[in-house]
């Protein structure tokens, strides 16, 4: 393998894998990995990245081009058999079938170089974008596009049972959205006071929806959770605005709603997701 092709293969293979692993470790050290995956799963991603970095360091200890030598045999020569049409023809010393294979490999080298270079340039561009682009959170528009109107899938009967005991201090929008959608005894929550933070989404029944994106494993599986906000809302905030709502849960003909007593505009939280 030519030296230039060997360098590209090493750079665009091991080098880029090491760069992606370094990005993952950096996000964990700076506390921003939660913008991409559930922090409870971060240990696995970071662990695999560390192993990847160790493997990259070890791989660079190999001689340049050594990866092309695996299985390349210049070995045995085939003597002409009796009756072979070429038996009377003298062949150059060392002329073997392996030599033909080596010549074919060299003939295809320019194409291999172009393919390696093209793929490497694309991969390098993707890594560069990941390095220089600041992390962006998922938008309210995305949350609305994923809202099917079905009950949340990330909570169940256990959440409702816990809520009926009054142990809701740690509840976020996701837990309350599950309660609102699945509770069979809404009167049990009448008068509960809450303080919740989320972003604003439109509501068909007046007021607005208080929404958060809930991540199970990573941002790809993020699901929207929303609860209706009504009551004394002087001016409905704009869609996508982040607010902290204080209020009281009311049972209105079997449907739960938060009767707001205060709506305060805030900046987007450092950790905008629930898990």
Describe this structure in words.
- It is built from seven helices and five strands; from the N terminus they run αααααααβββββ.
- The two termini are 49 Å apart.
- With 275 residues, the chain is α+β, with helices and mostly antiparallel strands.
- α1 packs antiparallel against α2 (42-59), α1 runs parallel beside α4 and α6 (157-164) packs across α7 (173-182).
- It has a five-stranded mixed β-barrel.
- β4 (242-252) and β5 form a beta hairpin.
- 38% of the residues lie in helices and 17% in strands.
Protein traits:
about 280 residues, five-stranded mixed β-barrel, alpha+beta, elongated
- What is the radius of gyration computed over CA atoms, rounded to a whole number of angstroms? 31 Å
Number of helical regions: 7
Order of helices and strands: HHHHHHHEEEEE
The main pleated sheet reads as: 5 strands, mixed, barrel
Head-to-tail CA distance between termini: 49 Å
Helix content: 25-40%
The gross shape turns out to be elongated
Structure class: alpha+beta
Query: What quaternary form is this?
Result: single chain
Strand order of the largest sheet: 1-2-3-5-4
Query: What are the low-pLDDT stretches, counting only 5+ consecutive residues below 50?
Result: 70-107
Rounded mean pLDDT is: 74
Count of β-strands = 5
Beta strand %: 15-25%
